[in-house]
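Attaching the record inline, Q. Sequence:
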Amino acid sequence: MKNYFKAIEEKIKLKVKLENLEIIDNTQKHKGHKSFSPERYHIKLILKSKYLSSISRIEAHKIINEILKEDLKTTIHALEINIVT
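Structure, as predicted:
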């Protein structure tokens, strides 16, 4: 899991200038849900980025979703994105 989260971090950092990135694994909070799968993550990204803060929230989310597009199809079930200044 740590290697996978490191891979996510590297993918994002290749495309977006970040001051900080925190990845929180919320997968276990969803264990009783109908569509729960231990192979698919529920993650929260807390991104500190002057660039992402300078554009609309919708555009910033589109950028992150595009970067993680393949992961969202295969490995990430739910993604929460918080952009802080």
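DSSP finds four helices and three strands in the chain. The helical segments are 2-15, 50-54, 57-67, 69-74.

More tomorrow.
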